[in-house]
Design goal:
Elements (H helix, E strand, L loop, with lengths): L7 E2 L5 E2 L1 H14 L43 H6 L5 H5 L4 H14 L1 H6 L5 H19 L3 H14 L10 H15 L6 H11 L8 H14 L9 H8 L7 H14 L10 H15 L7 H20 L12 H6 L3 H19 L4 H18 L4 H14 L6
Antiparallel strand pairs: 1-2
């Protein structure tokens, strides 16, 4: 069998694998065009323009690389490319699909639903996020593993009605499993010990129970455990958009917050990351009066500019002034920010990114921050604890 060589440098182009070049040259010659795209692990370029050169990975733009499709759904391919992953094929839903899934679970257990009413899912997600963070801090677990655990919890509860489970056991198990998948494993005895000390009234946990719950989670998720997170896209693009440390930190925090919404089940990770960057550019704290309003206008104009450049219409902020016009009236700080937004808009216009999805993510995140002010931790905790105790799930 002929060995597959690692990627080698091609003169005049960034790093690309020889299999990609050979296949693409043949395809390009048949179609009368010049091969301009790269493999999944290399930077994307477009022929005849520098607008997107150096802007991202295949997680940002849909792959057009032949080598990532053979074999089509191998473990390596799924781990390397979001576009071939089980996450994209099985765990991204529309809003209607997600509501139908949850509605079906409620219909199957109408008695439990009526007997034990629960807050809206957004409030449940906030509570689960807090509990994952509490346990994660005790175990000194990094953020990406905690994010993976929250994704497992969301997936699991699209398959199983929450009132049939002990959420505290599910949280502990999801975090234990996430640490394995993120290659930062924790000893099962330590996880059990910390979970029991954190929730002593709701867990009579031992190693065997956590192990059983682990298999339950894996089974309900059909062993589809590989996740692609927005953090990678943010890390990749931060230098291309000249993000300051404050903007990077705020983008990271926004990504953390999005796990308390349904967005991880609705949109691809790169959409989330790009939305977080946009919000960080617009909403970051700034002492200059009026900077927030000017920044929001610039963001709307940036998205409208990107939409118009693609011929999609200017459905968002079409009546706003251009970012350059706003920058002339603001401080140097605002000028730099608007300049970043212009670069950001140029990137969107030349990419295949779903701008309408970004608009929806932006609206959802802003709505979440508004709804977070209505969150009542005690009421949410009491409602969860009530059905756990009443159904004996703390001792089962």
């Amino acid at each position: 069998m002929k060995a597959i060589h690692p990627p080698r440098h091609v003169v005049g182009r960034p790093e690309v694998c020889r299999l990609c070049v050979k296949t693409e040259r043949r395809s390009a010659s048949q179609q009368g065009r010049h091969p301009a795209h790269l493999c999944a692990n290399a930077l994307l370029t477009t022929c005849g323009t520098n607008a997107t050169q150096g802007f991202g990975l295949a997680s940002v733009l849909p792959p057009r690389c032949h080598c990532t499709q053979a074999p089509p759904h191998s473990t390596y391919t799924m781990a390397a490319s979001f576009w071939q992953s089980t996450q994209r094929r099985f765990w991204i839903f529309s809003k209607d699909e997600l509501e139908q899934i949850r509605g079906k679970l409620r219909e199957e257990d109408q008695g439990l639903v009526q007997m034990f009413p629960l807050p809206e899912w957004r409030h449940l997600s906030i509570y689960f996020n807090q509990q994952v963070n509490r346990l994660g801090k005790r175990l000194v677990i990094r953020q990406q593993a905690m994010a993976t655990a929250q994704m497992y919890i969301k997936r699991f509860y699209t398959k199983v009605e929450i009132r049939r489970t002990n959420p505290y056991l599910v949280i502990a198990t999801a975090l234990y499993l996430a640490c394995k998948m993120e290659e930062t494993p924790q000893h099962i005895r330590l996880v059990v010990q910390e979970a029991r000390s954190l929730w002593p009234d709701f867990l009579t946990l031992d190693i065997s129970r956590l192990g059983e719950c682990e298999f339950f989670l894996i089974s309900e998720m059909s062993s589809q455990l590989i996740l692609h997170q927005p953090y990678k896209t943010l890390t990749t693009l931060q230098s291309d958009f000249y993000l300051s440390q404050d903007e990077i930190s705020l983008s990271w925090s926004i990504i953390n917050d999005h796990y308390m919404t349904d967005l991880p089940l609705l949109y691809a990770p790169h959409i989330i990351a790009l939305t977080a960057i946009l919000l960080a550019l617009v909403l970051r704290p700034n002492p200059v009066p009026g900077s927030q309003a000017a920044g929001m206008a610039a963001a709307q104009a940036a998205l409208a500019q990107a939409q118009g450049a693609r011929g999609l219409g200017s459905g968002l902020g079409s009546g706003q002034t251009t970012p350059g016009g706003a920058a002339e009236k603001e401080s140097k700080t605002n000028e730099a920010r608007v300049g970043k937004l212009q670069r950001y808009a140029a990137f969107l216009a030349e990419s295949n990114v779903d701008i309408e999805g970004m608009v929806d993510c932006t609206q959802e995140l802003i709505s979440f921050y508004e709804a977070h002010e209505q969150y009542n931790d005690k009421a949410t905790r009491d409602q969860i604890n009530r059905f756990v105790k009443a159904r004996g799930l703390d001792k089962a």
